[in-house]
Design brief:
The structure holds 2 protein chains of 2 kinds. In chain A, 13% of the residues lie in helices and 34% in strands. By secondary structure, chain A is mostly beta strands. Chain A is globular. Chain B is of the alpha/beta class. Chain B has one domain: TIM Barrel (Alpha-Beta Barrel). Chain B has an 8-stranded parallel β-barrel, surrounded by 5 helices. In chain B, strand 5 and strand 6 form a beta hairpin. Classes of the chains: A mainly beta, B alpha/beta. Chains A and B meet through strand 14 of A and strand 5, strand 6 and helix 8 of B. Bound molecules: flavin-adenine dinucleotide, flavin mononucleotide and FE2/S2 (inorganic) cluster (FES). The site of FE2/S2 (inorganic) cluster has 12 residues of chain A, from loops. Flavin-adenine dinucleotide (FAD) binds next to strand 4, strand 6 and helix 1 of chain A.
Chain lengths: 238, 306
């Protein structure tokens, strides 16, 4: 369906928060994503993004510019429209006990976590390199336990160094594979661990098998229809 | 009333627009986005006799106007297909072709014999042309002798529509197609993907673990169009033209040059409703151009009907 850019806000670190209005009503569940066309006449795949907030006819994304596609999407002007497939992916339908759940994000992985913690008193552990997501946190009024590799705007180190400061029986995490792998290794296997995963997405609809993610038993799952929220303990991150 | 029907073997297509194998899922995923009473049909993902795990990621790399894929025929095997996927096809009302990818003659015999006991199938597309099995992209299709042996005794196994899907990477495909025609095949699906690759310049290694990948999408359209033309001059049975199709104009080009029907793959991944959209546009095109029967445009480039 067509989506129209209503507002966008640029942050340092090449990250843009974009709010869209949808042509038709949407019902976005936790954990779902949107697959957006790239503006222009070229034939390209769509690009997938986590939905960071959503209403009946609007939703927002937080996009980090890393290449041609994200550049062109974030260059859109207010009032411009583009095609999108929304919502996609398996809804996360487990009941969340926020007192016993630890949310962890690394870098732009924050986009995957935002909707889970929206209006919640959540335990949120966030890590980046040098405080480059500070202005986004301030804008979104989020106060995570902030960890930097440099220690500039928070505690020094990696998020996984601080996991044991919290009490939890469930982890929901989004970020680089190295971070997810480290969470899997450093936490007890009785802790439920949900990883919000990324692989290259082509269709986003289960048509092509392009988004395969490998499990420890050698089999594959499809990030786009089985996920993107998957059992983080089963995944082979290597 | 415009007649959009196309006949291939025993199958009457409601429109010449078909979803290509590997880009149509198992069927239901595609039908969710398309109108089964308007489109021609779809071809399932390839089924192998035994389960195939598929290749490691990355499996996809986008290139200019196209896609490299290295999926590696991932599927649960024939029995899994019959038990879990085939039942979902029974209520779908458009042409349903099962794509079968054998590694030996024996395998294709076992597969067809088992499927002949099942309902809800219009025909078989036999795929000997997948580039993602060996690290050099070779397959049965690269060897005329092996291909001939494989197509030889299949006709007697089934009355259902039989199509052979061939690769544009090997010149042998034309000779194999001629033999398939003599052996009673109803159609030739041409082309599968082209052999291609990509290098990760940061690591200095191939992007894909299997080195070679299959190139598809608009980038290959002019080459596939030429290949379909050559194939149309090689065999008289219907050709199902495939390769980079994404507009109604592409469809007309393929049909005028010799295709009786077309399949859409990569463009379907980007526009999931494209089979319906193009089928509707094709009707409008016929109306505007006073074409009563869509089959009248097949092979018109030669001034002759096919
Ligand atoms: C389910 C899911 C949710 C995501 N959510 C967010 C989000 O909320 N915010 C955000 O900034 N990013 C998100 N991403 C990543 C985002 O999709 C990629 O950064 C984007 O597609 C890159 O496009 P590009 O054209 O700018 O980069 P390119 O120049 O095309 O590629 C750069 C790199 O990006 C990756 N990439 C390219 N195409 C895709 C694709 N189709 N799917 C996935 N990765 C790709 C590849 O690893 C590639 O090497 C998500 C990815 C997935 C799978
Ligand atoms: C992701 C992907 C998976 C594919 N898988 C199969 C397959 O399993 N069997 C097959 O016969 N062809 C497969 N193909 C080839 C297509 O059916 C088609 O022949 C080819 O992509 C050219 O058409 P296109 O340019 O419209 O995509 C695949 C193509 C793509 C892009
Ligand atoms: S991206 Fe096509 S199946 Fe997941």
């Amino acid at each position: 369906m067509k989506i129209k850019l209503k507002n966008s806000k640029q942050f340092t670190n090449n990250t843009v928060y974009m709010m869209f209005e949808t042509e038709k009503m949407i019902d976005v569940k936790l954990g779902q994503f949107v697959n957006i066309s790239i503006p222009g006449d070229e034939f390209t795949l769509r690009r997938p993004f986590s939905i960071v907030s959503a209403g009946k006819n609007k939703f927002s994304v937080l996009i980090k510019v890393i290449g041609n596609g994200t550049q062109k999407i974030t260059n859109m002007k207010i009032g411009e429209s583009i095609d999108a497939l929304i919502p996609l992916g398996q809804p996360f339908d487990k009941t969340i006990d926020y007192k016993k759940t630890l949310f962890i994000a690394g870098g732009i992985g924050i986009a995957g976590i935002l909707r889970f913690i929206e209006n919640q008193n959540a335990q949120f552990l966030f890590g980046d390199i040098n405080g480059e997501y500070k202005d986004i946190m301030d804008y979104l009024k989020i106060e995570p336990t902030y960890i930097n590799e440099s220690g500039k705007t928070g505690k020094k180190g990696f998020v996984t160094d601080y996991i044991n400061d919290f009490e939890f029986n469930t982890i929901i995490a989004c970020g680089p594979k190295g971070m997810l792998k480290s969470i899997k290794e450093k936490t007890d296997k009785h802790i439920d661990f949900y990883a919000i995963c990324e692989e290259i997405i082509a269709c986003g609809l289960g048509l092509c098998g392009g988004c395969a993610i490998k499990y420890d038993d050698g089999s594959f799952g499809k990030v786009c229809v089985d996920g993107p929220v998957l059992n983080g303990r089963r995944i082979n991150y290597d | 009333m415009i007649d959009q029907k196309i006949k291939i073997g025993q199958t009457v297509l409601k429109s010449p627009i078909i979803g290509a194998s590997g880009c149509s899922g198992w069927g239901p995923e595609l039908i969710e986005y398309n109108k089964q009473d308007i489109i021609g049909g779809f071809v399932t993902k390839s089924v192998t006799l035994n389960e195939k795990i598929g290749n490691d990621s990355p499996r996809i790399k986008e290139v200019s106007s196209g896609l490299l894929n290295s999926i590696g025929l991932e599927n649960g095997g024939l029995d899994y297909f019959i038990e879990n996927k085939l039942p979902l096809l029974k209520d779908i009302d458009c042409a349903k072709f099962i794509n079968l990818a054998p590694f030996t003659n024996e395998e294709i015999h076992i597969m067809i014999n088992k499927l002949e006991k099942e309902t809800g199938i219009d025909g078989y597309e036999i795929n000997i042309s997948c580039p993602n099995i060996r690290k050099d992209g070779f397959n049965i299709n690269s060897n005329v002798k092996k291909s001939v042996n494989l197509v030889k005794d299949i006709r007697k196994l089934t009355k259902r529509t039989l199509m052979l899907k061939l690769s544009p990477a090997f010149n042998e495909s034309f000779e194999i197609a001629s033999i398939a025609e003599k052996e009673g095949f109803d159609g030739i699906t041409f082309t599968n993907t082209y052999l291609g690759t990509a290098v990760n310049i940061d690591t200095g290694k191939f992007v894909f673990k299997n080195k070679v990948a299959g190139l598809s999408g608009p980038a290959i359209k002019p080459i596939s169009l030429w290949n379909v033309y050559k194939m149309a001059n090689t065999v008289k049975i219907p050709i199902i033209g495939v390769g980079g199709i994404r507009t109604i104009e592409d469809v007309i080009e393929f049909m005028m040059i010799g295709a009786s029907a077309v399949q859409i793959g990569t463009a379907l991944l980007v526009e999931p409703t494209i089979l319906t959209d193009i089928s509707i546009k094709l009707k409008e095109y016929c109306k505007e151009n006073h074409i009563e029967k869509i089959r009248d445009i097949i092979s018109t480039i030669n001034g002759e009907e096919k």
